[in-house]
Amino acid sequence: MRNYWIILSLMGLILFIYGFEGKAENSNLIYRVKVEGVINPVTERFLVNAIKKALKDKSRCLIIEMDTPGGLVSSTHNIVKEMLNADIPIVTYISPKGGRAASAGVFISLASDVIAMAPMTHIGAAHPVTMGGGPFSGGGTQTEVMSDKITNDLVAGIKTIAEKKGRNIQWAEDAVRKSKSITEKEALELKVINFIANDLADVLEKLDGMVIKKEKTTINLVTKGIIPQEIKMNFREKFLHAIAEPNVAYILLMLGIYGLIYEFASPGIGLGAVCGSICLLLAFFGLQSLPINLAGILLIILGFILLILEVFAPSHGILAIGGITSMTFGSFMLIDPSAAPFIAVSWKLILSLITATSIFFFICIGAVIRAHRHKITTGKEGIIGETGIAKTRMVKEGLVFAQGEIWTAFVEGEEVIEEGEKVKVVEMEGLKLKVERLK
Questions:
Q1: What is the pLDDT of residue 22?
Q2: 2-233: which CATH architecture?
């Protein structure tokens, strides 16, 4: 009986020590995540899971290193909601040098408990944009009324967040209504951010000792000497996030178009249709988080149709020129630069792909034209005009050697062609050649 109690006591002591060590380990845990590129459903899922993991593991805080041109309102709303309801401090660090927190990045930053910015970074330009053609503006049409409703809704939301976190409410409103953008020094003067930090180590040093007020508790941050552990995207998240990048989405769109053109030009095996369809679906996934201009999409589709028509009804390049011109204008109009100044397809990429397309089609068109100019060498049309040699004396009819074969031939009228004389084929009737003496 005594041994039984001794064993239970030892087990309890081991469990106590293990639990104490686990808490001690978690008390020194800080997580960090990197957010780069467009804020889309993939980024939303990644950030929400990171916040939940930090809560579960009782991390002292979560540091979000951010460099984003913006993204979807729906994804931003879900991220901000998760941040505001988190029981741990969340720090947003806008970095590296030259980075920015634009559009959706402003909402995420202001929802953080602490905002830090690296030198030579900026924040702002949070005015909402449509997915079909430019920034919202006041007016009387139904679209403009709807845009005003969305803008007012976002203004109300960002003012609430700024007030809750003790930040500059007026600037937050201007960032949405007037697309105002400021540098790190201006942000510090306007009390939009907490401090400027050169790197992550500087962030941790300045965070040490800060008091963060949450809904249920007040937290005294201790970050000195702690090395943050990075939460990284898995392969699936990296892949889906990569294809949402504007240049990658545009390349996939063009590859999809090329695949379908190839399939229409040489139907049968289905390779072009399969690869083209996959590329187009991936492109549409990436484009869904970008401010797409409807006119740009329609011009690209028109260009695709004209190139297909050139394949089926050659116009000696007229349709191809129209198609390439339409695709060029559509590509440059695909993303509205005024709506999203930091989200754009590289003009060098556009020119490279359009030039390659032009060269390919004009080489093909040139080959078709040259083929049309060549004399037909087979069939009835191929033998007319050819020369041969009379193999027999021809009075009305005889034998002729032409194109490597012996033919039955005839002559008109009273003309007589002696054996061995050269003749010219002037017509073909059935399997007989009509010839005349070669002059």
A1: 37
A2: Alpha-Beta Complex (3.90)
